[in-house]
Amino acid sequence: MSNVTPKTALAHMDIYRPDTSGAVSADPIRLSVNEGALGPSPMAVSALRQMGERLHRYPEQIDQNLVAAIAAYSGCNPARILPSNGSDELIGLLATAYCNDGDEAIITQYGFLVFRQAVTIAGGVPVIAPDSDLTVSVDAILECLSPRTKLIFLANPNNPTGTMIPRGDIEKLIAQVPDHVVIVLDSAYAEYLDGADVDYTDGAEYVDKHDNVVMLRTFSKIFGLGALRLGWGYFPDAIYATLATIRGAFSVNAAAAIAGAAAISDKAFYQQSIAHNNKWMPLIQDSIRQAGFNPLPSQANFFLIRFASPDAASHAHTYLAERNILLRKMVPYGLPDCLRMSIGTDAEMEQLAAAFKDMAHMKDIHP
Ligand SMILES: Cc1ncc(COP(=O)(O)O)c(C=O)c1O
Q1: Cα-to-centroid distance, 20 and ligand 1 (Å)
Q2: What pLDDT digit, counting tens, does each position of 239-260 carry?
Q3: Measured CA distances, 29 to 41, 42, 64, 189, 314 (Å)
């Protein structure tokens, strides 16, 4: 029996790990982790080939080539762009940097579970603001504010619900939250809105105006680089300085920096990915609906399907896994009657539609 014990905060932590298991083959139709449908940009793959001879060199601590490519893509001020080992790293660093033991961070009811886990690991207390109709409620967040609140985490659009918080609500939040509380706008799926909705903001404009608003982004979704672990954040000067100091010096590896700069500059691949998502989101939702199931609206590259009961959702998950199709169970999110799926390739969507059609006849699954 070991006498070594981790800090008390960890004793009661709900461990959250993305579930990538359950496939019947080594190469499943994986729609369970919200990856980009079309794989990586060909420009990123070809840029990676330059890596071979330089593996003995440590990477740049902050790769200016990558920062310049992100700035050119986003219009953000390069001096405030901090690349990271996935945006998960920045979520952890924010919690670590701004929560003293017992400080509170507000998380939304169906918000991304990494927020909750990061706050707990940092020794903070996650305070849950109820959603309204599976959408973040700014009023509920404001009611959770207390003298101990240090951070507010929201994803927009949110994972797993796929719902969006309109610009007016974000502005109301920023106006009413005291300016010592850091507001984290995680815009991991911003690309999928592609400027199509005037009511959407990724939040960058508020980072430029407020010392307590930050925006997080990722290369794991539309840019298809999940394997390399690359994200970035846009920060006011003081927060940038704090995070750049505590971030691991070499946390962004050289392969990620090279591939990321190429991927974010590949406009053709980006447009193709948006067009693919815009084509399949209504088509696949229609097929699922026609089979008698209930897909929920989404602004991202994934959506929830609500079943008649938690058992029906679980049976559907097993049935699809037996057909080599992986969807994500939503039990850890408190949505046990739902499964989440992302948009895949044309062939994958056709197989999924056929599987739903067949499921319609199974009496323990059908709504
Ligand atoms: C809302 C949200 N934020 C952040 C991430 C993590 O992204 P990364 O792969 O850059 O760590 C995800 C991944 O699923 C996500 O859904």
Answers
A1: 15
A2: 999 999 999 999 999 999 999 9
A3: 19, 21, 37, 21, 18
